[in-house]
Amino acid sequence: MRTITLIVLHCSATRTTQRYTFRQCREDHRKRGWKDIGYHFYISRDGQVHEGRPLWQEGAHCCGHNKHSVGICYEGGLDATGEPADTRTAAQRQSLRALLERLMGMFPSAIILGHRDILQVPSGHDPEDLSFLKNGHSNPATWTKHCPCFDAVLEYEDLEPEGLLKGKEKEEGRM
Ligand SMILES: [Zn+2]
Fold first, then answer.
1. Across residues 7-29, what is the average pLDDT?
2. I want to staple 74 with a disulfide (CB 3.0 to 4.6 A). Which of 30, 43, 132, 171 is the partner?
3. Which residues hold their Cβ within 5 A of ligand 1, which is an ion?
4. Mean pLDDT of the chain
5. Helix (H/G/I), strand (E/B), else coil: 98
6. What domains are defined for the chain?
């Protein structure tokens, strides 16, 4: 098995009014010339968790960070007008949390981030080094993407025994 230090969350960047199935996503990624869908898991609007690439295989979801990460995507991320929005259904939220709990059981030292946050992490980063985050968060001013359109660091902080926000507390305690 690979060493997993990061769990990266994505949205499909499709409108909440439009279906974008696991099959479609897989086909689109294959059309790009990839061997398979880039994500390890895909959560459709009904909350179903589809298995994409096997976990032991590197994904193709986050340039520079695929080697040690797991990629999860949920269907949606844009409102009816095409603006970034947290469009997760209750079923998606429930499945996503259950999946993250399972993955944290397998990779207890991993950290959970949104795609927009990881773009600020230096590649080949030390998981203990949280200096890329300010107050436990990435800086919206430097986002180059909105994906996954919600604050994954904050929402799943409780799942990480040594999470990012706890790292922040430790840092503050030192000051
Ligand atoms: Zn993304």
1. 97
2. 43
3. 10, 115, 147
4. 87
5. helix
6. 6-174 (3.40.80.10)
